[in-house]
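Hi U.,

Before I forget, here's the chain from the pilot set. I'm dumping it here mostly so it's searchable later in email.
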Amino acid sequence: MQYIVLDMEWNQPWPGSPSSQKVLPVTIHGEIIQIGAVRVSEKQTIEDEFQKLVLPKYYRRLNKRVSSLTGIKEARLKAEGRPFPEVMAAFQAWCGEDCVFLTWGFDDIGILKENMELHGLDSSWVSRWYNAQLIFNAQTDGASAQKSLKTAMAMFEIAPTRPAHDALGDAYHTAVICTRLDLRRGMDEYRKAEKCHEEGFHGADIPDCISRSVFHGYLDKDAVLKAMGGKENLCPLCKKRMRPSRWVAQPGHRYMTLSKCAKHGEFLVRIRLVREEDGTFRASRLLYTGESAAAISYRTKAERLPPEKKRRFLWPHRSVKSGKTEN
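Structure:
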């Protein structure tokens, strides 16, 4: 068996641009423009590398932010990039058989499968996949927050020798980290680590957090907010429905609202949204006391919202125009 440590860069259309209005055969969250991979042997030694640029077919105009972050220019893509099916054929041949894929985070493998489906390619050969970030987290300090690649390198005292935000550079640094981990044990215990991630545990207690729970099967963000502010928004003491105030957005697809039980007072609800492989959303919910630091943070941020946003986030089950409760 061998480990293939994979990283990719992808292009996204600028919001409101003609490319963003394109209706594609398959929904994708980005079109891959660079693939980088490093082979790690079963004995966890670095072997060889793979790197290819991909010529985008659908989002041909390179997003300026993507170009600035990665250093990739349109001229270089046109000169060196090859069509996605051609690159994937070369990548599959390079990978060989009996391999396990490792990425830093959840995004890359999902983007890869979306792009393969878009081009009508079989993705079953990349099904053996693990998030090295979860394995790292489980085998280090078990902190509540997932570590960035840069932070993980610093913790292992790994000096950067390749450029960041370059597919091969990030894959190489991830591979170096992987050589310091017990990958066999990490794979054996992966489901436990994944469940901890889903439920927000990560082996650490969260101050003032009363309960943690996970909900599955929502079609979109609005459906999540409606449920979390409605039928799932129950008082932890009497189990009666609480009334939420406006939702406040936070980085990383997180939202929070201060909910009130008529009998037991206020509680802070914080949720994190994650898109599942089937396209639905999973919501991880944390419930805090009304006097917690999280609740204080919410009140501060809510007061800073402009009036129009205050009206918009006031009450997720109530129409702004009519004031009628939706069913």
